[in-house]
Amino acid sequence: MKIQITGVTSNQLNIRRKKNPLFSAAKGLLDYFETNEKHEILNTSDIMESDVLLYGLYSLNSFVSGGFLKTAENIVTSIDNRKVVYFVDDWHIDGIGKNLLACSKDVDGYLRFGEKLLGRKATSSERDMYDKALKHIVYSWAPILVHVLPWLVDDEECRDNYAKALCVDPDRIVLYDPSLFIEWNVPKPIKTVYDKQRQWVVASRYDFTKFVNKTMQPTWPVLYYGCKKVPNAKFVPNEVDLVEAAYRPNWGIVSHPYPEHLQGQWRNKFMFSCISHSVILAYGKETRNMRTFLSRGEIEKMNEATLRTLAIAQRDEQLDRMSFEKSAERITKAIK
User: Fold this and answer.
1) Whole-prediction pTM
2) Residues 276-327: pLDDT tens digits?
3) Per-residue buried b or exposed e for 86-100, using 16+ beta carbons within 10 Å of the residue's own CB
4) N or C: at which end does the chain have fewer Cβ atoms within 10 angstroms?
5) In this structure, is residue 248 part of a structural domain?
6) What is the CATH number of the domain that holds 295?
7) Residue 306 forms part of a structural domain
């Protein structure tokens, strides 16, 4: 089976681009299909050779600015002669859903935004093409793949919440765990044994000092990485380097709540906590169904031996929840 994995911008059309995040949906699906002998991944902007079009849904600004006519044309061209399956990174879901619903109800308003980039008025046939593409995304029965943490793969409430956020029927949502599909390019540790410090690491491009001070209220020191707005914040070239620079030397990894439109970007932190043998502190639905995810107060009271035991227990529980077979079956069923 020939599969075309693509996005909605010229950059996303190159699925093998180096900047693809380790745990992005596109990277996970690419790694999965490329290691499966039954499938051939096409890496071309010409979709006509493919049997299945896996189309990434991102922000509607990208939908317009990156492809405009090409985006809608690819979807409409594919509807009648190949399987169309959508996929999404879960941290974009709220924004995508609101924009998709609004645009499907007001195609003219949506086109006016795109016409500024196109440099001319859209023709009536182009308008009809956009209308058909948007309605297919929102109202068709095409599956929508959403990657989630392993312990949420069978969570029906989670699936329903995603469907509500995307404004689509829940039966279209296919939850899967991408973590086993991905080859982790994680640097080997400089040290074999770390004298871990009782410190929390907050890694984000956003300023979470208010959350840390008012909600988390830690007694351990807090190290900030990645946010220019935070005084004395540290920077590393990429998230993978956080393993060596911050996570391995310290006991605490904070998986803070993200802004509503960015929910889900915590996945790297959970995977990296396993690799670094550190303890993760999480909030909200991230902790659902997990026995080893304790509160900040409980963690900070632990001695070194207990922290070591908890880190191992968290890693084991996360690994126990991962099911390559289940996720592979769901993806295979979706693309058939």
Assistant:
1) 0.84
2) 999 999 988 889 899 999 999 999 999 999 999 999 999 999 989 888 889 9
3) bbbbbbbbbbbbebb
4) C
5) yes
6) 3.40.50
7) no
